[in-house]
Design brief:
The chain is globular. The two termini are 28 Å apart. The strands form 3 sheets. Strands 3, 5, 6, 7, 8, 15 and 16 form a 7-stranded mixed beta sheet that branches. It has a 6-stranded parallel beta sheet with strand order 11-10-9-12-13-14, sandwiched between helices. The protein has 2 domains: 183 residues, Quinone Oxidoreductase, Chain A, domain 1, CATH 3.90.180; 121 residues, NAD(P)-binding Rossmann-like Domain (Rossmann fold), CATH 3.40.50. It is built from 10 helices and 16 strands. The protein is α/β, with parallel strands linked by helices and 338 residues long.
């Protein structure tokens, strides 16, 4: 008999989440079923719920990640067995099937986009880390050409907005490769960002920020982890007179005014491993880099575990979008809540 599954369903665009039963889906070729023990609320998922950020069929189960215990493996799966502790990125928004939605007890995912969780790592930390970490590493390594950790490449990186999850991971990754890292943050975060590996940190609100950053350039790699127009426009000035390329977590907007010799690189960085053309990167990510990062090679983003399970996901989404918590919010789908 299949186990009883429950999920937080969204029934219509921008609708409230409702806790109902959901089908238990047996794994197909190359798939696994995960007993989901931790859900991290990402801004991306919260935007899909509240603002129709992505078109999905309704009713639907949102969420593109799961951390828990392998419950069942499908045909041809060799890297995992029942009982393994894993974290996985699911193709929820690519394939638009609810069985992959992370906001449920039993989640179907792919072997190829799953990593083992080290024994020393909690489900909560495992769930909270990959989305922002993948965004940073994909932008720097895959899109800007930065090397892998330990390559000791000479280079200089500029990370704008280094105190947030993505920015903090970007600083750590660049430092692990061997780059000198210059960063921007609010003054109260200077010590924190330096602790992640930055050699110099400037106040992003400083009236002379452009001239100060230019004085330490040129830069081999530049990323804005805030993605706002102010950072993009400032970086465009920093890149003068020769111009150049930088990565941003947001696409260009009407407020972004770049010089003609400056290119902004934007992609759905967190979805990198769902794209077949990135197969080599995906294998490295789930088999080597992510397990090591979870095992202590990366300082994880601070998290806050919320009570209430599936019943409180919507409240957590609201808090994420409204900026009520500086920490990564995590819930246990199995926890009984009101």
């Amino acid at each position: 008999m299949s186990p009883l599954n429950e999920a937080a369903w969204i029934l219509k665009p921008k609708g409230d989440l409702k806790r109902f039963t959901a089908a238990y889906n047996a794994p197909l070729e190359g798939e696994i079923v995960i007993e989901n023990r931790a859900v991290a609320i990402q801004p991306f998922d919260a935007n899909v719920r509240a603002r129709e950020y992505v078109d999905v069929p309704y009713p639907f189960i949102l969420g593109n990640g799961a951390a828990g215990i392998v419950h069942e493996v499908g045909p041809s799966v060799t890297r995992f067995k029942k009982g393994d502790r894993v974290v996985s990125d699911t193709p929820t928004y690519q394939l638009k099937e609810s069985k992959y939605g992370g906001w449920q007890k039993y989640v179907v995912s792919r072997e190829a986009t799953t990593a083992k969780i080290p024994a020393s790592t909690t489900f909560e930390d495992a769930a909270a880390t990959p989305f922002a970490l993948l965004t940073a590493v994909s932008a720097l390594h895959l899109h800007l050409g930065m090397g892998k950790p330990g390559t000791n490449r000479n280079g200089k990186a500029l990370i704008w907005g280094a105190s947030g999850s993505v920015g903090g991971y970007a600083v750590q990754y660049a430092a692990s490769v061997g780059c000198e890292v210059v960063a921007t943050a609010s003054p109260r975060k200077f010590e924190f960002v330096c602790g992640l590996g930055a050699s110099t940190v400037f106040d992003y609100k400083d009236d002379e920020i452009v001239s100060k950053l230019k004085s330490l350039g040129p830069y081999d790699y530049i990323m804005t982890a805030s993605g706002d127009a102010t950072s993009a426009n400032a970086i465009s000035e920093v890149l003068q007179p020769d111009g150049g390329t930088f990565a941003s977590v947001r696409p260009p907007s009407d407020e972004v005014k770049l010089a003609k010799n400056v290119q902004l690189v934007y992609d759905s960085f967190s979805m990198t491993t769902q794209k077949p053309e990135n197969g080599n990167f995906t294998r490295w990510w789930y088999r080597d880099y992510l397990p090591g990062a979870l095992g202590g090679n990366v300082n994880p983003t601070p998290l806050e575990k919320r009570a209430g399970g599936l019943n409180r996901i919507q409240d957590a989404c609201t808090d994420v979008l409204e900026g009520h918590s500086p920490k990564q919010l995590v819930l246990d789908p199995w926890e009984v809540g009101t």
